[in-house]
Amino acid sequence: MEDYDILDSPDSDASDGPSPRPRSLMLAFFGNHVLEEDDRDLCVYSGSIIDVLGRVGVGEQAVRSTLTRMVNRGLLRRQREGRKMYFGLTPQATRVLLDGRTRIWKQGAVNDDWDGTWTLLGFSLPDSWKRQRHDLRSRLTWSGFGALYSGLWIAPGEVDVTGVVAELGLTDHVKIFHAEAEVSTDIDLMVRDTWDLESIAARYITFGKRWTPHLGAGAGDDPIGTRLRLVSEWLWTIRTDPRLPTRHLPPSWPARPAQETFHRVAEQITEPARELARELLDTVPVR
After folding, report:
1. Coil, strand or helix: which one is 26?
2. Does the pTM of the predicted model rise above 0.70?
3. Beta-bridge partner residues of 119
4. Looking at the DSSP assignment, which residues form a beta bridge with residue 86?
5. CA-wise closest residue to 73 among 166, 11, 135, 6
6. What is d(CA 249, CA 148) in angstroms, rounded to the nearest whole number?
């Protein structure tokens, strides 16, 4: 689904780092201050959203137009209270954010415990189904798959994507297998041919360069903006990483130090960001 595209930034450059789109930042905002507070039945005043996203360089008009587009796409809901307009999560957005939260805080970027199995997914779609093909590839990439061949995708470990395929309405066009490679298969070569390791590594290196200077610097003057940038950039970093087995990756793979940097910076700014959010954000319960 296109929803998962909003967790990435197409205008990113590995040398300069990511420049997340307003809608990516918007979902990160709701993930930080609604989903993670375990109060999904909460709406936030548009003025509060404008304030926080303004701290990371998103102008008021861009915020307002992004809110409108996300409502139209079923990712946010509106709720009027007097003369104020509040916005909350829909079930669709909650599902996307829960998936992102698992990737960020539970799975991690390093795969040390791979059991040697692979998930293979084969599909054949009519040439005219360009939208369905894009949606499937987007969701497979997010789930850790890479294209072994044009219609055969592969991911390390046992990955359950039956729900994803069913949601896209493609169950009759997809076949899924779990298997192990024959001894004669050069897995190192297969990994290099299937995934762009240089691009994935460059994202981690970029993240480390941008955020290592923050270590030990405390929360700073704007912890809420800093945390929004941190989470958005980490999502951009891991977006295309399938968590390949470390035994089949180049030596000194940069995911581990980047992940340690992410968690250490998050630890030092999360509580100050939450305290500031409680002061700044105007919220109301969902009616």
Report:
1. helix
2. yes
3. 155, 178
4. 45, 79
5. 6
6. 17
